[in-house]
Specification:
single chain; alpha+beta; PH-domain like; 3-stranded antiparallel β-sheet; 8 helices; elongated
């Protein structure tokens, strides 16, 4: 499945998102879904700057006093900085679903990243208020077996789609066998034979020398078989 970006208004910023996501992934990890916050979050983060610009415009209408113009200029500059910071914080906040884990990253200068392995995800829930249902955004709660226990991600666009995708990835991860489970677990027949040898030795039906020789033959044969399997 190809990766998709779930957000609005990225436009020419898509290559920057691709590079940022690539920095979060392991070499052989695949991103399935990349989610930026809903545009309503951007409006809320930069709304104060827009209000400041309106106030500055009203001040300039009160007269041509130098002090009013100076105050209006300071308000405009502060508002522009507010808007830029709000937009940067919105853009650098991203939720990434991969074939191994859930990664949530935020921060412009100092990045903070939380992650939950898919096998530790216990439950995924969505919450939407009235405005969220109208504009199609909401909150996603991810319960896990980690020490933190729960991760809450807000202003997620199309939260139901995110929940369904995460649930599918979680089921796939739980059904996927461990890569080295078979090589690390001892063979059942070898364990049974070693147990039988121990019982015979404990019953004095095998001498110490015979027990040691038989055990060495079994272990040596197991190692040989493992090497042949690897070859």
């Amino acid at each position: 499945m190809s990766r998709s970006v779930l957000t609005t208004g990225l436009g020419g910023l898509r290559p920057l998102t691709d590079r940022r996501v690539a920095d979060l992934l392991d070499p052989d990890e695949r991103a399935v879904l990349v989610v930026h916050p809903h545009w309503w979050r951007l409006l809320g983060a930069s709304g104060g700057g827009a209000v400041g610009c309106v106030v500055a415009g009203l001040l300039t209408q009160l007269g041509s006093l130098p002090i009013l113009n100076a105050v209006a200029l300071i308000i405009v500059l502060s508002s522009v900085v507010w808007i830029l910071v709000g937009a940067a914080r919105w853009y650098f906040e991203v939720l990434v679903l991969t074939d191994r884990r859930v990664v949530f990253s935020r921060g412009v200068l100092a990045r903070r990243t939380n992650e939950i392995p898919l096998k530790h995800v216990n439950d995924v829930r969505t919450e939407q208020g009235i405005l969220g249902r109208l504009l199609n955004f909401g909150r996603v709660r991810i319960e896990s077996g980690n020490a933190k226990g729960e991760e809450l991600v807000t202003f997620i666009p199309a939260p139901e789609r995110v929940r369904q995708e995460l649930s599918r990835l979680t089921l796939d991860a739980q059904d996927r066998p461990s890569a080295d489970a078979s090589t690390r677990s001892p063979r059942p027949d070898l364990v049974a034979q070693l147990t039988q040898l121990s019982l015979l030795h404990a019953a004095h039906r095998l001498s110490d020398e015979e027990f040691a020789r038989a055990k060495a033959q079994l272990l040596g044969g197991g190692e040989t078989s493992d090497r042949e399997d690897e070859a």
